[in-house]
Amino acid sequence: MTASLAKVPCTIITGFLGAGKTTLVRHLLENAGGKRLAVLVNEFGDLGFDGSFLAGCGIEGCTEEDVVELPNGCICCTVADDFVPALEKLLNRPNPPEHILIETSGLALPKPLVTAFNWPAIRSRVTVDGVIAVVDGPAVAEGQFADDPEAMAAQAAQDSSVEHDNPLEEVFEDQILCADLILLNKSDLVDAEARARVIAEIRAHLPKAIKIVETSHGKVEPALIVGLNAAAESDLAARPSHHGEGEDHDHDDFDSVSLPLPAGLSPETLSIRMTKAAEAEGVLRLKGFTAVPGKPMRLVVQGVGRRVSHHFDRAWGADEARDGRLVVIGLKGFDRTAVEAALAG
Ligand SMILES: Nc1nc2c(ncn2[C@@H]2O[C@H](COP(=O)(O)OP(=O)(O)OP(=O)(O)O)[C@@H](O)[C@H]2O)c(=O)[nH]1
């Protein structure tokens, strides 16, 4: 096989909302070592933040056209309409990427995506080099993905199927069960004892031994991630899922909304309001940006669970409206009114 006919390796980066996928992708772009990378990024929620964070990253050798956004909902449900055509477009470029990173939304199940690599349109051109699951260490330590044992027992008494009572648990499990490598991220936020507990909990979910690497801010030797040669699309049986092939996974358990975020407040005031919004019933993830007085830079605000933070990411463009937006993702029926009240102060 000549080099031009070799399959382009793709790394799928999965992991729950806010686990650190975009942070990892940035790190990999910054440390590409001269390799021509492209990124396909998908989000639940319609603002395309991750793409804008990556495309505006200013990383040498990474141009806007190397970052392709698939913002419509969930990549695993729009494989035919969005994912396969976007991948083909990248491959058909005169100077195609040498490696493709695919960042899924935090609610996506990775297996349908891996399965799509067997589609006739792309199967001779690409291969899944590896599936990387990024795990939010503190979220696992706090029990975010744990079933309530009493609710499980009550359910099992009524019906013998293995449905989980916690919808987060199901997504989390599908993601780690599909992985070739697990990154236990946010190690800076958990002590050694809790890290050991989290690793034991992850292992308890896994039917086979998978390497778990502890990271902070996704900082990992790129060679550990890229070049795994897993050919995951040929190994689907080893990647169990709660959702059978062709079965719908329609996100009935989750919801998202995009809201205006007030401009003209100090970062401190915004932070207080964001903290309150993050505490609203059912809220899982906040991400957005806005303008603050006397600053030429855009302020990015982030909320993962109850943890909020902010930083300035880039200068506002000359013709850009200096207003703010916030995407809120939560469990279905999350308290949107409480979020709006918190943001309004
Ligand atoms: N303290 C700490 N914060 C982190 C770490 N990794 C990521 N973060 C922060 O966590 C927040 C979410 O990180 P992202 O990289 O956007 O997470 P994501 O998985 O891409 O999020 P979604 O695309 O919304 O699912 C940001 O505020 C990051 O700066 C880490 O290792 N430690």
From TrEMBL:
Record key words, sorted: Chaperone, Hydrolase, Nucleotide-binding
Enumerate the InterPro entries for this protein: CobW, CobW-likC_sf, CobW-like_C, CobW/HypB/UreG_nucleotide-bd, P-loop_NTPase, Zinc-reg_GTPase_activator
Biological process per Gene Ontology, one example term: cobalamin biosynthetic process
- What reaction does this catalyse? GTP + H2O = GDP + phosphate + H(+)
Where in the numbering of this chain does the CobW C-terminal domain appear?
254-345
SMART domains listed in its UniProt record: CobW_C
* Domain of life where this protein originates: Bacteria
Q: Which GO terms describe its molecular function?
A: hydrolase activity; nucleotide binding
Question: Does the entry feature the keyword Nucleotide-binding, yes or no?
Answer: yes
GO cellular component, as recorded: cytoplasm
SUPFAM superfamilies, per the entry? Hypothetical protein YjiA, C-terminal domain (SSF90002), P-loop containing nucleoside triphosphate hydrolases (SSF52540)
Pfam families noted in UniProt: cobW (PF02492), CobW_C (PF07683)
Q: Which NCBIfam families match?
A: CobW
Quote the protein name from its UniProt record.
Cobalamin biosynthesis protein CobW
What species was this sequence derived from? Answer: Bosea vaviloviae
